[in-house]
Structures are given as C-alpha cells and as structure tokens.
Amino acid sequence: MTHSMSLERRFWQRLRIVLLIVFGLAILLPIAYVVLVSLTPDTEVGGGSIFPTHIAWDNYRLMWSTVHLAHDIGNSVLISGCTGVLATLVALLASYVLSRFRFRGRKPFMVSLITMQTIPQVMMLLPLFVILVIIQNALRVHLVGQYVTIIVTYLTFALPFACWLLLSYMANIPIELEEAAQMDGCTRWQVLTRIVLPLILPGMVVTFVFSFLLGWSDVLFASVLTTPSTQTVAVGLQSYIATGESGGSVFWGQLMAASLTSGIPVVVIFLFFQKFIIGGLANGAVKG
Amino acid sequence: MVDQSNVSISAQSISVRRDRRKRNRPPYWMIAPAVFLLAVIVAAPFLVSIYTSFTSLNQYSIGNWLHAPFVGLKNYISAFTQGSAIGASALQSLWVSVAFSLLTTLCITPIGIVAALLVNTPFRGRSWVRALFLIPYVMPVFVNAITWRLLFMNGWGLVDKVLAWLHLASVNTFWLIGPNSFWAMVIADVWSSWPFIYLMVLAGLQGIPNDLYESAYMDGATQVRCFFSITLPSLRPILSLALLLSTLNHFNNFTLPFIMFGTPPSPQADVLPLNVYVTSFQTFNFGLGAAMSLITLVLMMIPAYFYIRMLRLGEATT
Questions:
Q1: How far is B39 from A155, CA to CA, in rounded Å?
Q2: Is residue A37 one of the residues assigned to a domain?
C-alpha cells in the first residue's frame, strides 16, 4: 500500500515536471523568437538561418525614428491615463451609491452595466462615429482625432467595467464604520471621503490599472477615431505592417523591438499587481 | 439580512429607523455622472445604431443624414445574402465567429485546468511559474497578434520552418491567407487566452476545503479519482462562468484577427466584428454595418442572459 502510494506520487511528480517544461517552452518559445528577430538585422530577416550573423542593437535605436514611437507612446499614456482616472472617479461615486442604497432603477442599472460589457465594441464604434461626423458637419468643429473624443469613447467600455470592479470592492467594506460616522453627524460626502476612500484606495488603484490597460490595448477605436497626431502606439505599430501591405518591405526587426517596448511595461505592471488580478477576475472582470 | 429585520420592533426603534431612512435617501447626484455619461455615450448611440440599420447611410449621405433613404429591412436581408462588397457575407462570418469562439473555449479549458492544478500545490519556484503563466495573457493583444503574424509568416516564419524541418508540411504552407488562416487564428488565440481559464480555476481551487482531499486520501482514492469526484464538481460554478465569459470575449475579439491578417482577411478568418468593421469603415456602408452589428448583438444576448442570471443580481449584495 505505502509502496504503491509512493510510486503513484513519484509518477505525478514526474508528470508535473514534464508538463511544467512543456508549458514553459510553449510560452517562452514565441517570445524568445520575437526577441531574436528584434535583434536581427533587417537584411537577414526571412533568410535561410534563424539565427542572425550579428546582433543588431540598431533596431532598438532606429525604431524611434522610423515611426513616431515616442510620440505614439506618449499619446497612449495620456489617453489611457485620462480614461483610467475618469472611469475610476465616476465609478467610485456610482458604485458607492449602488452598493449602499436600495432604490428604484438600481437593478436595471446594474443589469445594463453587465450588458454593456458584453456588447461588441465594434457595434458601439459605428454609431459613435456617425454621431461624431454629424456633429462635426453641423457645428463645423473637429471631433474625430481629438484627445477628448477618444477618451470619452473609451469610457463606453472602461466605465461599465470600472463600476463593476469597484462594486465588488465596495461590498467588502464593512458598513458599520459608515453608520457609526453618520451617528456622529458626518454628512454623506464626509462618510465617502473620510471613511470609504481610505479603505477603497487599493481597489481604486486596481481599477485604474485595469482601465488604463484596456485603453492601452485598444486598436479598434483608436484606428478609426485618431489621426496621426493623436494615434496610440497600438495603431502606430500598424504602420510598419502597412508598408508591407502596400508593397514595401517590412522592418521586422524594428517592428518586434517596438512591440516589445510597448508590451513589456504592461507585463511588468500586471505582474506587479498579480495578486490583485485573481480577485478582480473572479469578480467577473472582462478582458477582450 | 432577512433574519435580522424579523426581530420584533419597538416603537422607539421605528422612529429611529424612519429617521435613518430619511438620512439614507440615496445621494442621486453621486450616481448622476455615470448615468449621464452612459446615456450619452452608450444608450444614445445604440438608438442611432438602430435607426441607421434601416437606412442606406454611407459616406456620401452622412452630410445630410436625416434625408438618408429609408430602406426598411433591406440591410438585414443583404447582411445574410451578400455582406460587404469585399468580404464574406455576414452569415458566413457568423459561422466563423461561432466556430472560433466555441473551439477556442473548448481548447483552452483543459489547458487552463491542467495549468491551475500544476501550480496549486507549493513547490520551489512556484511564484516564478505563476508569473510566467500570466505573460501571454497580460501581454497586450496587439503585441500577441504581431508575434503570431511573425511566427506564421509564409516561407520563413518559425512555424513553417519547424514544420518543414520535421517534414510535416511544406515550407510554403500559407497560414495567413486561405483556409489555414482560421487555424492560425485559433492557435494564436489559444496561446494568448488560456491563462484566463487558468486564473479562474486557480481562484476556484482556493475555495475547496483541504479536508475533502484528506479524507479521500484516507479512503485510498487515487489522484485521478480525487480530481473527478472532488475537484471538478467543486469547480463547476466558477468554470461555467469562465466558459461563458470566454465564449463572449472570443466572439467579440477584433484585435487579434485584425492585426494578424489585416483587412480584408480571408473569408475563412473573417469573424463578425472584423466584417462589421470592414463594412462600416472601409466600404463606408453604415446602414449595412449597423444591421450586421445589431444581428451580432441579438446573438450575444443569449450568452449574456445566462451570464446575468448566473450573477444572481437580485439576491447578492453586489
């Protein structure tokens, strides 16, 4: 009995090691290949050998001038940052009311919050674009390509998401503290700023990070609603590929270097917040 | 909650309650910004979308949109028959999308469960493995799409090279155009989305009490038996939520095929969101695009309905 158990245990241990290696390779091989190509000179990409004859650090230097990478990253930071701040603040107020009060229209509102997260984004983009163009034509103003426009349209998916995420954090804050503060004569606003705010701050940070990253990863809205001067890095990288589609040669090395540059910071942020992610996901967070 | 309010109430406590209720009138101004914003940026566009779907609005008539010809159900009919001028019909896209979302969900579920079980019990270096497992998921989708576009490049991409080296396929197996593009999309998506199931299962595993396993172990149950009799049944609620969300997300996935294939993609990989995009913003047939997106929405309401029911909004406090 004991012998067979230890045999069985050893089998599972071996299996685990084998599976861990398989998983590790499956995850790391594509990434390693991207790193490799990002260091390959453009003349050698697509050649016979996988490995370059020499390491081309130049790709990491040239990528800043081939496309306006720094400018695009700046746009991404600005747009995603504003989206994150706005979504978090508006959602803080809304989720507080939703979690602490029962009122008519509460349930329909919450159902619509979820429904909005399941709506295909392309379905929102079309009427938003039509409305923007109509307003532009009527008032002779420029809306498409403005920072404000893209930030507000990002709220269509960031705000329902932020509300939902903050609701789950609100539910974990004991209501007794607030009741005590009210007994002592605090107004509703004072309760929110002095009691709830310090407790919900970690949740707000996570909500901001998630909303920020939603904006950072968006391609759909940005590809229609931005112009070259306001385009985000997700759209900017496309111009590398676009040159290939129009018959030119694609600078694969630079493209991979630029992709890594725009992706790695996000990975680092996420891994930094790793332990919060599991909780956030279990609460029904959605990522496309 | 209910039990507490059933406690007998004295006259004094009634007056306290009334006083408290007055103080507890919801501060509607706090929720007003959210309601206003969502009404303007979601509800209003939604209505515009319905109106647009019955007109033949395009880039020429948008300047005088109120007079865009009303065409009734024509857009809906042509969505099912011809679709956009340069892509697949909406009906064909619909099948691609359904197949894509179901197939990927089916593939990532066992992968995610195995991965979660691998790291659930402590071992040296576990936190590193956990971090590693998150990388494909947390990498922005557009980066993953570019990665797989590179890997699937015809003739010199890593996939073709390895397949040719193993004598499994020609080095010129076209992955990004033609019938293979569907499979390229599935593979790339499985690679970048399995950690979602993994994370959900990992969260679910924390909720299973350890003594269940201990008593099963005492009874001499094997690991396999434990998995099918304890782990899997306990995971059922969170797993069904995960499968539903995964299907929804995959159905709405636009970024991955958009960047992997460019526009217009091969009909085999022309998922519905991509088709709507091409119809709306490249052929500028807003009416048809709106009709197609409304068809998508109606379909999405089926899983969304189950999702909302699963969350049990009426009963829970959140």
A1: 12
A2: no
